[in-house]
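Risk register update: the risk of archive-format incompatibility is retired. Evidence:
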Amino acid sequence: MSTERLNRALYGSKLTAYAIMRRTTYLLTLVSVGLLVYAHGMVEEPVTLQQLYYAIDAILAIFVIIYLIRILYAFDRARFLRRTKLEGILMGIILINQLGTYGLDTPVIYNLFESMGIPLSVEVYRLAVSLYMLVLLVVELLETKVYLKTAQFKPTTMFMFSFVVLVLLGAGLLMMPKMIVSPGSMRFIDALFMATSAACVTGLAVVDLGTYFTFSGQLVMLMLVQLGGLGILTFATFFASLMRQGIGIKQHVAMFEILESESIFSTKNLLRNLVLMTFAIEAVGAVIIFMTWGREAHFVTLGDKIFFSVFHAVSAFCNAGMSLYPEGLYTEPVRQAYVMHMTVALLIILGGIGFPTMIDVLSPKSMRARMLTPWRNWKLLSRITIYTSAALLALGTVGFLLLEYFNTLAHLNFAEAIITAFFQSVTTRTAGYNTVDIASLTVPTLLMFIFLMFIGASPGSTGGGIKTTTFTIILLSVWTTIRGKRYVEIGNRTIPHSVSYKAFSVFAFAAMLNLFFLFILTITDPQFDIFRLAFEQVSAFATVGLSTGITAGMSDAGKGVLIVSMFIGRVGTLTLALALSTRATTTAYKYPQTYVPVG
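Archived output:
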């Protein structure tokens, strides 16, 4: 009875209270993120920094109070707590830390992480909370009626726009004085290049991440890689489904096109599984990398070792290929850490195989179902991506071993040569890590790399390229034409002509773009031979990140060409074409047939 009496008393003021709390959350979220950026990017004086941290902690305390008031106004409080479980845990951590820090003079978060040697633990904690609230703010804005009425964009346009915003924000953050070790700030073109390379999970770099950026700058790069790897819209939609009542048909259609699922309805559970599986794989990968750095790798503190492990695990799974070592995994301390190399290779394969395939093959639900029905086969998409990827990995491994056995592999024994050849075959699938000196490779090897990079990863993955399915459909279409058959067939299924047209369109669009950009590069950077420029261009377009060492020496105009290539390669050539195209008025007609000689 007391609960019903309380609900009746609060009922009249519920709408007003929620409106006030929503506006307060909007304002304070923007203020807290702004203060964090200002503190970590601009302010040097300790006294000013401490005052800013007091203000941020006060905002976090208000978030806790707002959450408690929301519980009070939720008439079904048990259901509200279940629905906002993650948010409740986060608010509980904030409450405990605030009471300990300002009530008992015992900073819980600081003491916990400082004991493990993790620097800037409190700053990272504040940043995580503020970004979480910012995501909720974005989700709220995406769900408003004003947005639905005014932003009638195609899903592909929204996807592209999200990357543009992410890149520009990243470039702005990287230009702040405290993001780099040396005095001053980063040049705009270099900051834009690094932000694009991270957000588009490419890995090309004009500076050394480990020595040029401060910890704050490295953290920004890590966030750009993680958000860019899955797509910022993917994260926003995931949190919308996690924190609210679900997502609508418009969001389902957007994720269907972006993730390239087999049906619209499969995206509902795919999205939640996608993000949870990503975090789980990255966490397991970070733990294994932490334990397999090798004896030669030395770290100043335990916190440095943890951060290096997390950074490389996220970069590997997102197929970014960025490293905190100057020469990547070819750097002397980790050059012979072969167990760690295999761990990174496995993360790259999992990130590049495609999320629909991963969930079909590796999710616990699918594995249980397959154990109960062993005769049940993988989906056709899974079979195409896995078999094609395996064939390309085998081709790259054997090819690299044969072509480089007396060159870059000459100083290794046979087992080490096999591991190195396999790793390089994996990394050409849009990952960008290297365990050999790319500049020392022979011309046939570099040509093979260009071929593998151009194909790239699989649909719905963190990788780029024209995709394995595109390559397979083109081969099958050519084989069908040679055999004089009418339909493309695979796995007892007929592939529609529209899919073949799409595959050839992607291939032609990608080939023409690379040739055009290569032509521009020969004008802007004539100091490099055309073969090195071609390797750099395809690496940028396929979001691979492998380089023969010319990236930092390119002109500003050349860097601009690579920036555009990385962006187009990440959002996808067909996605870009669809976003820029105009809708045909009607296709319900057909002109008379005629035949044109080809070949």
